[in-house]
Design brief:
Distance between the termini: 59 Å
Shape: elongated
Number of helices: 3
Number of strands: 0
Largest sheet: none
Structural class: mainly alpha
Order of helices and strands: HHH
Strand content: under 5%
Length: 64
């Protein structure tokens, strides 16, 4: 069934071009967002796994 649909679609090079453009668009936006982040925010996020007491979703400290 899919083979028939693809054959009837004719020249499907536009699908490859659209996929490539979508990939580069998402990649470019991701790089832009990453490099626009504040260094303090990146350092804070990098140290989160190393902190002793992680804040709970309700805002209270963890009880051991």
């Amino acid at each position: 069934m899919f083979k028939y649909i693809l054959e009837s679609a004719g020249d499907i090079n536009w699908m490859a071009i659209f996929a490539l453009l979508t990939f580069f668009t998402v990649f470019g936006v991701s790089l832009y967002v990453i490099f626009r982040r504040d260094k303090d925010f990146i350092d804070h996020m990098a140290n989160l796994p190393l902190e002793e007491e992680a804040p709970q979703p309700n805002g209270r400290a963890a009880v051991n």
